Amino acid sequence: MIRWNQTRRDLLKALGLGAAGLPLLRAGQARAQVKGITNLICVQMIHGYRMREWKPAEGSLSGQNLPSSSRPLERHREDLLFATDLTSLTGGIGQGAYGTVFWGLPGIAGGAGFREPAGKTVDQVVADGAQPPFTRRSLALGVQLDLSPQVGTSPGANYCFWSGADQPIIPQLDPRETFLQLFGGAQTDVDAINRLRFQRKSVLDYVGGSLERFSARVGTEDKMLIAWHLQSIRELEVTLGRIGAARCNTPPPSLDLKDFAQYPNVLQAQLDLMVAALACGVTRVVTLQLSHATGTNVNFGAFVPGVPLLSKFGYKTQYRNWADLAQNPVMDGYDHKAIVDQWWMTRLAELITRMKEVPDPAGGSLFDHSLILWASPVQDGSNKDGQKKPWVLAARAGGPLRTGQSAPTAGTPSAGVLAAVCQAMGVPHPFGAVTPNLLT
Amino acid sequence: MRSTCFLALLALLGCSRTIPAGPGPTTGDGGSTGMSMSGGATGTGGGGGAAPGVPPDAGPTLPPEADLPGQAPFARLTSLEYRNTLRDLLGITGPDVVPSTREFDSGQRNFATGVGRGPQDVDRILRIASWAAERAAQNLPALLPCVPLPAAAAEQEACARQFIAGFGLRAYRRPLDDAEQTALLELYRKVRGPEGQADFSGAIRLLIEAMLQSPYFLYRWEVTLPLVKDGALVRFGAYEMASRLSYGLWATMPDDQLFAEAAANRLSAPDDLERQARRMLADPRAASMVADFHVQLVRADDLPDRPSGANVGFSAELGRSMVAETAAVTSELIVGPGARGTLEELLGSSSTIVDSQVALIYGMALPAMGRQRVMLSPGQRAGILTQAAFLTANSRSDEPGVVARGLRVLEQFLCQELPPPPADVPPPDPPPPGPATTRERHARHAMSPCAECHLKIDPLGFAFLNYDSIGRYRLTEPDFPDQNIDASGELKLPSGTLQWRDGVDLARKLASIEEVRACMGKQWFRYLMHRKEGPGDERSLRLAREAFGPSYTLKELIVGLTRTRSFTHRTPSPGEVLP
Fold first, then answer.
1. Which chain A residue lies closest to B190 (C-alpha atoms)?
2. Would you call B128 an interface residue with chain A, using a CB distance cutoff of 8 Å?
3. What confidence tens digit (pLDDT) does each residue in A356-397 have?
4. Which residues, in sequence order, are bridge partners of residue B233?
5. How is residue A365 annotated by DSSP?
6. B357 touches chain A (CB under 8 A)
7. B118 reaches A (C-beta below 8 A)
8. Which of A1, A198, A214 sits opposite B527 (nearest CB)?
9. Is B209 on the interface with A (CB under 8 A)?
10. Residue A233's beta-bridge partner residues?
11. What is the number of H-type helices and E-type strands within chain B?
């Protein structure tokens, strides 16, 4: 009926499709075929930022220089959405809301003053509505969360992604182990990867042969379509091999996961895994916990240039750890916390750059299909103000998210941003009304 | 000439996934002769005149070329068909495990050319095949002919051979020839060999994955060679007929009985086809096909994807409920228990099946527990055209879609094809000062060069002005609370001038005019054949039309179509190897 108002010939003509035109059509479609946002990355930040050095002025980002801590993000400014001064509905004071950052709605009391969500956090809500194909509904990663000193055993202090009330998602901390689960099963050697690749190639060989034989059964016009399909299979064989080598078949380096100086390397390995998992179709949703609720085990002095290893304040430990920086950002006249804030924004900028470089099978880059939510439970570790949360969202400009701005979100609940994330991805959600001005 | 007509039509076309209609072939509407559809024997003769295997009709004599059905489309499984086929082939069911295969559509439901649009498209097929095979492999004993699973390599290969033949027949919807079985066995051996090292289960999983990516599975082209010629035409083979019936009436692969009938070569005579069609329409699986047809007919198939707030008061959840209403009420009307299923009911009934959300649209308060049948005000609602799905799908923002609603009635129910909007229409004038009724705002459409189309489209759209953009009934427009809406109109048709008071009056009158009856025959033809009718289908359409009348029972129309030569024969495609 309605959809068959044209013959195949009409359609091919409408597409400008002749045998010689096929490659051009394909190239032209690369961008056009980019569909909506299908991937979500949630990164959990703690202790916020030094506002004067980090917070852009409200309004368009194109008309201003980003402050020093945010400056690494300059080249992505059109793809960024700052949502600052968000209020909290979850309850809990300061870091007490750590476990409910991605929940946003009224929480329930957990141990030691830490709140817990009463339902699924946004990552799981999105995972519920994610469009297959994928092999895992979500991937939860963390960075050295098990190093000492710990923050206690309260789930609300250790986990911020939940599949429901009282159901925290335990993140995976070992990049190599995760890699093998995702891409190599229980097998540990390159041979195993080669076997998987051989199996895939064998299947594609069969499909290619089927197409060739099938072609004998159809007419001339349809032979062209089959030839096109076959050409795509052959290209896919080549592409899969190349992508596999570059993105999916490169195991993370062997790292000492107990050495706090390795934090940036473990972080990088986990970020690489996130990108690979999305690019290779393992999952649509990845989460990353950068720390437990206080960050006493993340010793920035060990790896961030300009930050001394040891603290003169000795908050919880002798090191210039995240909690120490939050309590006492300035030491010897230097705002070390602002330096660390800039270091984090550099990591975010690198993640975006990396995702823009990775092609997506659906066309465009991986970033074109992704949304990054980089969220903190408090404004600044020094004030622990949970009613002025500073969040950063990143997605390709021109999509459903109104990027390129620091949105007027002061006083609006963070749940409205979670609602915007879900709506941008076309997923039903429980987070209530979308904060105005976040969506196109 | 400054006008809004071009923008209006352009916006309409742009927001749908329709391919703009080109100048296609048309057929005569045929006339009812009261002729019986029974009888008829399988023939092998030529292509013109009274076709072999098809009963003669008593209408005006048609030229021989009116009985030469066109080429069969080279169709790929649609999303619905793909999903249903996975369910019936692999037992993968439930919303949690069956993926949406919307990306398979590439915008054209049931059209043929979606596949092969580049590596991205093929990659999606690969991923979904891998996903499905992985899940199917979790319950291999249900798929394998050898239980318990053999342990020895030789027995495993023997089992794989049986699996290839048995599962292959169901996946490819026809028996595999020796070469095809050998190719799959080679794949099995390769992946089990020293380079692949797959275990038995893994190798079976890879076989499934391969078959799900094969063109024999993806494309609706179950040709068994050599082709059977019938005069200038090709007769569909028995297994092709099994698939034509199953995908036409169930939107899924053939069941065991159809495979058995195909194996016994009992799917060529019209009576055999009718027997199967009646059996299948009595099966619950027919409901999804009937629902799919009507949701597409009113162009509501993308309503669940429309973002919340697209229309004032609209939400995606409400959109799903609206589509569910149209799906439920049409499927129950036509293939439900004891259904009469007439065109008059489709376009005139005030009875419907709604949940609490859609009930609110109709001004009713229902408990939030599933769907239930309710009777609506006969003065406000009459059939599918006054249901929320049609009214909302063909409106945008907060304005009732005058052009969209009118165009849908014209195209979908009267089968009139309009030329595309003129390309040289300048931008519209600014709106006139002061408030204006919807009719007044559309008055500029009546000016050249838009008038030719809009004088047909707009009156039909005005008929539904009593319904806001999400289908709520109203007596007045918001800016004119003291002025009753004028939804009356008229349209000149070959059968005479159609006049109506409002949308309800129009809907009920449409059910009784010849143009709509003929159009429904064409629409069902297109749905079942996966192609548009051509001059060579005229006789088939006439016979189906006779089966439809005099009661205009939709089920009889569908059954009648399965008896036609257009259902059993096709013109060979150019370049096809013929015996």
1. A202
2. yes
3. 888 776 667 889 999 999 999 999 999 989 999 999 999 999
4. B230
5. B
6. no
7. yes
8. A1
9. yes
10. none
11. 23, 11
Tokens at B378, concatenated: 């006969």
What does the alpha-carbon distance between residue B89 and residue B84 come to, in Å, rounded to a whole number? 8
State the complex-level ipTM: 0.80
Confidence grade of residue A27 (pLDDT, cut at 50, 70, 90): very low
Q: Which residue has the higher pLDDT, A275 or B305?
A: A275
What is d(CA B543, CA B546) in angstroms, rounded to the nearest whole number? 5
Residues in chain B with CB shorter than 8 Å from the CB of A222 are: 74, 221, 573
CB pairs under 8 A between A and B: 214
Cβ contact B214–A219 (<8 Å): no
Closest CA to A53 of A291, A329, A321: A329
pLDDT band at A15 (very low <50, low <70, confident <90, very high): very low
Distances (CA, A) of B298 to A155, A320, B238: 51, 66, 34
pLDDT of residue B54: 45
Of the candidate ranges A9-13, A318-322, B58-62, B497-501, the one whose mean pLDDT is the lowest: A9-13
Is the CB of B67 inside 8 Å of chain A's CB atoms? no
pLDDT at A262 over 50: yes
- Asked if omega into A149 is within 30° of 0 (cis), the reply is yes
Give yes or no for A426 touching B (CB within 8 A). yes
Best of A29, A202, A212 to disrupt the B interface by mutation (most B CBs within 10 Å)?
A202
Residues of B in contact with A428 (CB under 8 A): 316-317
Average pLDDT rounded to a whole number, residues A309-323: 91
Tell me what the pLDDT averaged over chain A comes to. Answer: 83
Give which of B329, B328, B249, B240 is closest to B285, Cα–Cα.
Answer: B249
**A19 in B contact zone (CB under 8 Å):** no
Half-sphere exposure of A64 (CA within 13 A, CB side): 17
